[in-house]
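Researcher: Let's try something more involved. This one mixes different molecule types, so please make sure each is placed in the same coordinate frame as the others.
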Amino acid sequence: MSGLTAIQKVLARKAGKHVEIGEIIEAKVDFLMLHEVTGPLAVEEFEKISDRVWNPNRVVVIFDHDVPPSTIELANQMRKMRLFVKKYGVSNFYEIGRGGIAHQVLFEEGFDIPGSLIIGVDSHTCTAGATGAVGIGVGSTDAAAVLATGEIWLRVPETIIVEVEGEFKKGVFAKDLALSIVGKIGANGATYKVVEYAGKTVEKLSLSERLTLANLSIEMGAKTGIVQTDSKSFEYAKSFGKQSAFMDVRSDPDSAFEKVGINASELEPVVSVPYRVDDVKPVSEVEGLEIDQAFLGSCTNGRLDDLLIAFRIIKGRKISPRVRLVVSPASMKTYSDALKMGIIEEILRAGGVVTSPTCGACLGMSRGVLAENEVAISSSNRNFMGRMGDKSSRVYLASPATVAASAVEGKITDPRRYL
Amino acid sequence: MIVRGKVVRLGDDIDTDIIIPAKYLVTHDATILAKHVFEDYYPEFRERAKEDIIIVAGENFGLGSSREHAVIALKHSNVKAIVAKSFARIFYRNAINLGMPALVPEEKNRIGEINDGDEVEIHLKKGVLRDLNTGREFSFYKIPDFIVEILEAGGLINYFKQKGGKTGEKSLR
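Model: All components are placed in one shared frame. Result:
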């Protein structure tokens, strides 16, 4: 094996030397993302060891978990983060109403440059892999050390290449592919490894669809997920004037990796049933199960194309009287674009509610929390016990199309007859 | 570093949402977080954690959210170490960073020989767990030296203070 894997190439660049798989290295961080839930603890720990942020231009503070805040405690946490931003002169700050869900904002604002290293205090930081960036989620104390030094110790992970070939059948979306991959590899199947997405089907996916794919990498335990770069990722970098920083991120054919093949033409619309993301079943197996809430949003599937798919299904119809449809656009930009396109108006007309861009419902924090014994279908990313509310509630994960069709029927519904 | 405690056996895929639900992420006050540890999943845990605890679990311990609050809640519930067949990587880092030993036995399928309620002792440098009820010994995969140093310092922040002081410029290792 003389070639290098994609992650070896990026981490070698960040460590300033050749790196071996399995080696523990110190890597230079391009951007550190902090949000209001795990950020304040990072700041508190940081201030025990330093009085200077390594580079205030490379710190990004985004409010997203409970926006606007629904408790005094969270309002206070935001206050702490604002004071931090001011005290250290942090230049990238996304206040309430000016950003959205962190991973979406990082993408929209051009932080996810291919070949860069992004550390975030959030497990879904792996979403940045959609454009060929390496996004790694950490806890608060790791982030504190990055704030002080601009560096992080990392073990150079092994690689699993997921190669996807074949055309999607009608009603199958990037989310169905992503969940099917999690189902195949398992919740523990990529622990400590990186999942690299390749193949003709992946090449055809838009950057938004790639965000969905990279996003669910953590649900296999992966350190991160990377979509191999191509002209779309180059155009992304170019659109922010960063073409010179672009790096082709893909493993050499003669490098060390395992390969998992997926035939996209065999996939069905699927759901993950409680309480495991990797417990993936065809929608047909749970069709007819009555739901109380349909949630469309999150860093997984709250983007404009997700809202547009739902719009096409909901248009001219009514949300079932037994169901609440909660829509949380992933960012203010998404919200604004959906408004201009008439999507928001149609959701309201059909009987849905649109919240501010926030993670709220996805993690059972605010704006769409489930009551005892309630059942939800959700476009988000986790269906653990109590994830979206009461411990007896149950969450089924699905594509935006399945969420919308189920909202209309009041029960889990195969979206294909609505498309 | 030697830690000792009574074993609490847990299964596979213990996620951070069930260790500490998101509704409590409005604070990182250790006392408050410890009060709600495993609240929905294992309400008896708090009663058991009145004495020192060693968690012995299955695969993929700590999967899901990056919330360090999960480790804080366990640490302040008298959990002295966690032994599991495997750990989710963010949880693993968080545990080390807060000075909580997170250990994987070399013969992970022997983990079933450790009974709930057994008194065990872990010798970190030797990499050995000894079950004081049965006399059985289990060895762990070797932990890199700098991780042992972080654990012995009581976590990354203390380690950092010992190594570099309050400079903001010193490297981590």
